[in-house]
Structure formats: structure tokens, C-alpha cells
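Here we describe the complex-level prediction in full. Unlike the single-chain runs in Section 2.1, the three entities below were treated as one system.
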Amino acid sequence: MLLGPSLLLSAVLFTIGVVGVLLRRNAIVLFMCVELMLNAVNLTFVAFSQVLGLGGQVMVFFVMTVAAAEAAVGLAIILAIFRHTRSVDLKNINLLQG
Amino acid sequence: MSVELVFYILAGFAVVSALLCITQRNALASALWLVSTMFSLAAIYVLLQAQFIAAIQVLVYAGAVMVLFVFVIMLLNVGRSPSDIRGLPVRIVALLVGAGLLAQLVLLGRVTAGGMALTRGVAAGAGSPMNAFPAGLAGAAAPADQGVVGAIAEPLFRTYLVPFEITSILLLAAAVGAVVLAKRKL
Amino acid sequence: MTLSLLAVQAAGDLSAPAGATRWVWLAVAIPFLGFLVNGTLALRRPQAKAMVSIVGAGVLVVAFAVAALIYAELRSHPPEAPVIVQLWRWIPSGSLDISFAFQVDQLSAVMLLVVTGVGSLIHLFSIGYMRADPGYARYFAYLNLFVVFMLVLVLGASLPVLFVGWEGVGLCSYLLIGFWFGDKANADAGKKAFLVNRIGDFGVLIAMFLLWYTMRSLDFATIAAKAPTDLVAGGGLVTAITLFLFLGCAGKSAQIPLYTWLPDAMAGPTPVSALIHAATMVTAGVYLVARTGVLFAMAPFSSAVVAGVGALTALFAASIGLRQYDIKKVLAYSTISQLGYMFLAVGTGAYVAGIFHLVTHAFFKALLFLGAGSVIHAMHHAYHATHSHADAQDMRNMGGLRRHLPWTFWLMLIATFAIAGVPGLSGFFSKDEILAAAFGRGETHPVWLLYWAMGMLAAFMTAFYMMRLMAMTFFGENRTGAAEREYLHDAPPIMTGPLVGLGVLTVVGGLINLPAFAGGHHALERWLEPVLAAAQSAMPLTMPHGTTEYLLIAAAVATSFLGLFLGWRATLARPIPTAAAAPPETGFARVLFRKYYVDEIYDALLVRPLVGISRVVLWKGMDQGLIDGLGANGSASLARGLGWIGSRLQSGQLGFYVVVFLVGAVWLLRAVVR
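The structure predicted for the assembly as a whole is:
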């Protein structure tokens, strides 16, 4: 019953997340937009678990776990970069240039 | 109030929060708006009969991950800085990409329960389309026996035991990695 | 003549009626050996002049001996068909199978004798003339090489072999004209000769292509046999072939419009002018027309063109010769004029007369040139001794030399009378035969009467300017200068010997083809009959007889005597100023002196536009602009540009990478959404 609208909401949130990734230069905020995308995906899983069984919710469980781990590691990296370049602005992080 | 109405209110809340999240100049404000989005989503999960997940969303996502984000933001004192939203050309690209993506996703997501029931060979109008999905019905009925947590726990520790164990190792690795990366001196 | 062909042509075998003809290749190989030896000496030990002299002249004498033996052989066993001596298989390319083969028949025997005989005498002369020159060995090397190519030309059994010789003599001509290349003018003259000849060579090539297209063969014997059947007489194809061949002849034999190189070629040593630009190379065109006579006989339009151009050139060049002061230039224009006579002959169908005049002209023109060489030698010696810079070749600086150079004087006088057509000497018989043939043809084709008239007028002018040359050089007061006079003396015997030899030939040369009225039997005509009969029958001659014949002879004799007399009187009527003191030419005399400004016209109309187009369009526009700019540099810039674009993608900016990533992902999603 709520399947269609949920999927639509999920699509919208995912798109907003993508636009955010494209728009922002701050590394941390970029990361947050990625989290937003992950949330949108979680919503999709949960919406489908209504029709396809509890497997969907288990999947969300795992997604959240991995997202947490990834957030921890990612922020640690950002910290390390900050210590080097004293900024989290992406335009200053261009050591891969060439 | 019908479920749909509540859903739409919550959905609107979520969308507005997300939009504000990506457009705030202050990183901390962005973080907080993201928290708001997560709360809305948690409420929607409840509407979708995923109560455990809703709880976990609040506890883990909003409560741990976002807190971590706020910690880092405060630690790095990013706060007020000249706007870190990219310039006009990229804005146009972003809008175009967003529009394209949204169109594609909407096209992909044109599924309804009735439509899915049809693909399962159940004619429309034969009662609730949910009757076409035995797994879904089982999932809805499970908390009646084992409780909400138990309903999740059973597949988690039975069918998906191996991924569970792997995920725990992953968490261990992530924890170690985060510590190592963030240390000043090894 | 039986039009049966190649009497003997076994594949790869040397074949002949037994005897001398088998060794014809020696006549070519020995001078080539001489070239190699002299060339090596020129590079290693240029001071070994004695060796060079012996080798250089010796190989020619040996070649002449071979030629004489072959002639004797042909004399005793006259072949019905040409003897083909195949040397090796040259171009085996599918249906195009060309052998490097020599053809020994009566015509090539005549040419062989002339080239080696006159060539030997000129080589001997050169020993004396070039004695003091530092490039002595190089000179003889080139001269020997020239003889090699000339013999290949006259002995070639097919057009490609002839063409090898054709090009080769052009090369040697270039090398020898520009022999003293330290002076740019000499090098330019060599270049001019080569380039103008090239235009003619193009004609020969086109003709070869057309012949191959029609007949699938380029051997002379096959062409002669198949021409009547394969080609339509008077048709477009045969006319085109012959006109293109004549273009080549016009280049090589200096006819209008490609004659301009020959006067400039006088920049080379005088014996070179004698050998190449009088006796042999320039006659190659006449030989070619005679050789392919069947084709020309089948194309009356082309023959008329050939005769017309010949007559016109004869007249045109003679008129220029009237007002030249350089002794060699007068002789150069005289050569062009006499070549015009030869083409008038072969264009009229009088092939024998053309060859006859070729032979006699070789004798007296070589004599004239060598005599002039003797004069110039003496003048140079005189001016060198007094350190004067006056022009040693300008006749205005000469005068009264008969007292100082008696041998040269008498021999050149004989040659002058011969060229003017004094009865009894060789030139009289040959020139008379040509004019008679032209007149005879005039009865059926009126335009030939015009040609005859042009020929008569040119004969008058020839006598005039030759006597003018003699008068200016050998008579009157000596204008060389008091100090120089004591150094003027005749040439050493090594130089006067060949002059005497040529003098004898000039006198008795008429016996080769003595006509009936003089008690002869047209020996050359009968000798050449097997070769030329086919052409002769396609284009029969009507020779005037009886009263008409005698009247024509009388007219010719009268013209020549009138020309000689008037030339003598006009030249010596007034005192002649020296070259330095001479007033500039005025009026029509100036036009003649400036050769009708033909060189200037060619320069303005052809050379400059061509050079301009080459420089602006082809060099700057195409080569630098298109090929370098677009091609070489353009592709480099393109590669660099692409590389630059590629490197911009590697900005190192994570944000940019994310953007690209997402754009790509959205794009890929299309596949799923479909």
C-alpha cells in the first residue's frame, strides 16, 4: 500500500543526496550527503520488506552497520588530512594531480 | 487520520530536512538537519511495520554516527567558513544530473503492490494484493509470535549467520583502522 | 623489302650471321671501359694526363675499328632484316618483356661509323685543346660516357633501349656543357639544356605509352611490321604518336620551340660543341624519325608539321646567325638551321636525304667547330700572355687571322663552301637533294613549295653568315691588338691533324650518295633501302627530273654564290670595330642580335610564372602550409592537444572525480531504465 510512495520518497532523497555530493566542497558535509543516500536506500529496502519478507530488514541492519564503520574510518581519514593541510576543503586536496 | 496522510507529512518533513541539509552553509547546521531527516525516516519505518529498524535507526544512525559527525565538526572547528558550495557551472551540472537521476529513478520505481501482485499471477480485485506475497505476510505475522526483535533475530542468526559474523570482523577492522588513522603519532 | 622481321632472335642467345655483328656490344663496352678508367683517374690521379689521353682517345679508335668491321660484314653479307643482338633480359614484366638488345642494320651501321669516326677525330683534337685544363681526366671520362650512350641510342633495337641512350646523352650533355661549373653561367647553361630536353623526353614517353597501348610492342622491327595493320593511316592515333615523338626530337635536336638551349650550350669546351652539338647528339632526333619512318609516313599531317617546323627553324635560326658576333654562337645557330634542313627532309619523306645531310653535316660542322676551337685556342693564348680580359670568342676582336693560322683558315674555308653548297663538296649534294625533294612534293602539296622557298632563303642566309664569319675572322685588319699579335699561331699537329681528316671527308663526302646527274649511283640510298623501303613506299617521293632538276640546281648554286659574295662584300665594306669599341645595335639588327628576344619571352611567359607558382603555391602553400602545417605539425599539435585534455582530467581534485563518477553513473543507469 505504501510501496509506491515510499519508493518515490526514496528516489527523491537519493537524488537530493547526489545533488548534495555534487554541490558541496566541504569533505565532512560531502560525507553526510553520502549518508543521506544510504538512508534513502535503507528506505527502499524496508519498503520492499513489506511484500518480500524480513530479508529486507536484515539487509537494512547490515547496511547500517557497515555505514557506521565506514563513517568512523572516513572521518578518521578526514582528521588525518586536516592535520596535513589544515583544511577540509576539497579543492585543496589534489595530491593525485597528474 | 489515515496512514497515507501521516506518511505524506513525514515524507515532506524528510524532504525538507534533506534539502536544508545540503544547502546550509554551516556544517553543523547541515549535520543537525540530517539528524532531523533520520528521525523522519525512523517514523516512516514504523509506519512500514519495521519497528526494530526504526529503533536501530535512531540509536545507531542518529545517535552514534551523527554524533560522531558532530564531534569531528566541532573538533576541526570548521563552522563558519566562506561558502563551500561550488560555483555556478557546477550548480547547473548538479541540477541537470539531479533531474536526470530523479527521472530515471521515478521511472524505475513505478511499482505498486497491485502491479507486483499481477506479476505473481494474482488478479486485481482478489482481496488485498498483499495476499499474493506469502513472505510478506509471514513477516507481518512474525512479531505476533516472537516479538519484534525476535522476528529480526531469527533470520539474522539463522539464514544470515555468516554475513553477521563477517560484519563483526568488519567492525573490528574499522575500529582499529579509525584509531590508527586518527593517531597523531603511531 | 620483305617486311619479315627479326631474322634472328633466340631468347637470350647471341645470334647473328656469323662474324662481326656479334661483337657490336664491344663498340659500346670499350668506351664504357674508357669511362671507368678515366673516371677513376679523375678521382685518384688527375695528373696522369698521358694515360688519360691514351685511354680516352684509344677506346674511340678501337670502337671505330669495330664499327668498320661491322660495316664490312654488312657490306659483304647484306641482311634482309635487321640483325638483333640480344644482350640480356631487361624488363620482364608480364606482357611487357623488353630485352636490352642492339639492332645492327644498314642505318645503325651508318650512324655507328659517324659517331665513332668523327668522335675519334674529336677525341684526338681534344688531347691538344684541353691539355692545360686541370679537369682533363674528368673531361675524357664524360666524353667517353657520352659515346657509350650515343651508341646505345643508335644501336637500340627498341624504343626503351633508345631512350636509355637518349637520356644518357642528355646527361652527358649537361655534364659537359657545365664542365667549367665554377662559373655560374656555365652551370646554368647545363641546367637549361637538361630541362628543355626533358620537355622533349616527355613527348617520347607519351609516344611510347601510346605505341604500347596500340601494339603491345616497342621493338622497332615489330612496330615496322605491325604499323600498317594496327594503325589507321592518317588517323588520330598515329598522328598523335608521331607528333609526340617529334616533340622529343624538337627538344633533342633543337628545333622550334625547344632550341633555346643549344646556343647557351656553347658555354662548354669547343670539342664538346663539335661532337655533341653538331655531329652526334643533336642528330638523334633525325635518326629517330628515320628509324620510325613507317609511322611518320603513315601520318601525313605529322610529316607536314615536321617539315614545316624544320623549314621554319632553318630560316629562323639562319636569320639570327646573321647578326651574332660570338664565333661559336654563329656556328650554334648554323647547326640549328642545318638540323632544320634534316627535318625538312625526313618530313618530306626523303629519309635518305635526311641521313645523307646528317652525315655530311657531321663532317663539315665538326670541322667548323674544331676550326673555331683552334682560333679560340690561339686567341686565348694571346690574351693570356698579355693578361687582357677581352673576349677571345668575339669575332670583332679577330681579323686577318689567315696569316697566323693558315691551316685552320684553309680547312675552315673548305667547310664554309661545303655548308654554303658550293658544287662538288659534300654539302652541295645533300642540301640539293633535300630542296629537290621538297620542291617535288610541292607539285601535289602546295605548302611544300613554301617550305622550298624558306629553304632557299635559308640557304642564302647560310652562305651569307658563314662568309661573314670567315671574313670577320680571317680577313681584313687584325683587331686583336698589337701586343697579342705575336702570340697568335696555328694549332699543334694533334689538333690540325683531325682538322685535315675532317677536311678530306668534307670534300669527298658527297661520294656517299652521288646523284645521277653527277655520274653517281645514289650509293647511300641503295644501302639504306632495306631499312627505309617500308616508309618510302607509304610516302613516295616525287623527285624532279630533267629540266626542272637542272633549274633547281642552278637556282641553288646561284643562291649560294650570291650569299657568299654578298657576305664577303657586306662584311668587309666598312672597318669593323673591336668588341669593346663597338656601338650598341639598333633597329632590326638589334632584334636579330637579341635572338628575337625568345629567351626573354620564355622567361616572362613560362619560367617566371612557374617559379612563382612553385614558390608561392607549391612550396609555401602546399608544402609548408598543408603538409607541414596540417600534416606534420598539425598532427603533433593534435596529439599534444588531446594529451592536454587528458591531463586536465587528472586534476587530483576528489570533488571533480566524484562529479565525473556520478555523471557516469547516471548515464549508465539509462541502460537499466530502458
